[in-house]
Write a structure and sequence with these properties.
Blueprint: H1 30-35, E1 51-55, H2 59-71, E2 74-78, E3 89-91, E4 100-102, H3 113-121, E5 126-128, E6 140-144, E7 147-151, H4 159-176, H5 178-186, H6 190-204, H7 209-214, H8 222-231, H9 246-254, E8 262-264, H10 270-277, H11 292-295, E9 304-310, E10 314-319, E11 324-327, E12 330-332, E13 344-345, H12 352-360, E14 363-364, E15 366-373, E16 381-383, E17 389-393, E18 397-400, E19 406-410, E20 418-426, H13 427-431, H14 438-452, E21 467-470, E22 481-482, H15 489-496, E23 511-513, H16 525-542, H17 558-561
Parallel strand pairs: 1-2, 1-12, 6-18, 9-13, 12-23
Antiparallel strand pairs: 3-4, 5-8, 6-7, 9-10, 10-11, 14-22, 15-20, 15-21, 16-17, 18-19, 19-20
Length: 569
Amino acid sequence: MTSTVPNAVQHADAQQPPITMFGPDFPYAYDDFLAHPAGLGRIPATGFGTEVAVIGGGLSGIVAAYELMKMGLKPVVYEADRIGGRLRTVGFDGCDPSLTAELGAMRFPPSSTALQHYIDLVGLRTEPFPNPLSEATPSTVVDLKGESHYAETVEDLPEVYRQVAAAWNACLEEGADFSDMNRAMRERDVPRIREIWARLVEKLDNQTFYGFLCDSEAFRSFRHREIFGQVGFGTGGWDTDFPNSILEILRVVYSEADDHHRGIVGGSQQLPLRLWERAPEKIVHWAYGTSLATLHDGVPKPAVTRLHRTAGNRITVTDASGDIRTYQAAIFTAQSWMLLSKVACDDALFPIDHWTAIERTHYMESSKLFVPVDRPFWLDKAVDDRGNPTGRDVMSMTLTDRMTRGTYLLDDGPDRPAVICLSYTWCDDSLKWLPLSANERMEVMLKSLGEIYPKVDIRKHIIGSPVTVSWENEPYFMGAFKANLPGHYRYQRRLFTHFIQDRLPEDKRGIFLAGDDISWTAGWAEGAVQTALNAVWGVMHHFGGETDPVNPGPGDVYEEIAPVELPED
């Protein structure tokens, strides 16, 4: 069974328990930490009600604020735009409210087990996401160099695609001990994980994804590398990732983050919004029924415009309304580049090597465009020139080297309005759309798809105006997600481990970094959750708190599982 084009690896069956550690760098079981009845920790009663700034109301900020509130602290959430961050679900003007578009995160792997904890907590449901050749996708069309191939399974594709799949499997085995690492992660064999990964980090930190392919005898054919880049595995073409560190890609395939994706029914933004409104069943200090919303009178504070240190190693926050507040601790969850541009910062906030790591953060661009349609017409059956049925769908989930790159078909039943993601692109492919308006983008996309499906009139089914996003043009993001370049491992380690502050000078403590670009596997909501939990542990420790010995937190076991440290000289 496969959900890839070509198949990345022979993943475990979807019915097996998923891998529950999202990446090999810090093999900590966040899902077990969250599920334990002892809770995440406690602070001294003298700290109850103390305000803690949480800057950024995306998933990481809301998770951190929610858990701090449960401990008896008073999180003060600052949000420049809207709660949700890159969990952004929007509707279409004049259309049924049930029709939505996921402008940010839209698919989540089973290995996102800490994320799943919160999805379950707020009562959301998930459903299979229609990736290329997944079980949820009736058919897929691969269109390269003007030649289209219709497939319902990978076996329907020409032999060259199976050759590329075999090359990728061989490349991973030969160059990255895939099966051994995958098995160790599934079994939570931490010593073995660390042994394999330490060797690979030292060996591959300076290697690009493309260089890794080129070093493999299995990928000696340029044609195979080209097809692999254009079609990719799991989520579509990966040539936009070719300049990135191969370590970034290995984290994804080891943890099966590229497979068996699910979407959140009704939209992913519901998750942070429901957490914002939710009154925890177990809460310290605050009255039963307290929620983040009630602590904020329903509305978070506005954008942060300045951060600086003041006497007593406090963190002082100025917001867009001119309000100034000083805190014993703060968590910064917005994209790191905001500290270089949108927020006036005191250099004393972080050690200089952390500032260097923030400045070196590399973000990938990403664009999407969605249109609402009257029904899932793509499930109609095609006929040939003589009017005879072909047995094929008239339109399919589409991967192509044309401007659209990836087209996804999203429906809620045969008799209901539906949505098409006409195009989902990254990096250079995303920049090609940047100067165009939503309608201009749609026209180019319809032209490209018309060349693949000349008998299908997509336009006649469109019932509303398109919605689009280019994350590189969003003022509070400047990019979709982090992706480390070769040589960036040391920078990422500094950012991820910043929550461990006992070794920092006292005048550099008290502000904590979180968010998916602080995580080892950015671009996935799981990283936002994990780094939020790291920051919660850091704040608890900063206030003199502790975890229950039966449920040690990520900082308690840090010395045992700390990420590999590469030499600086």
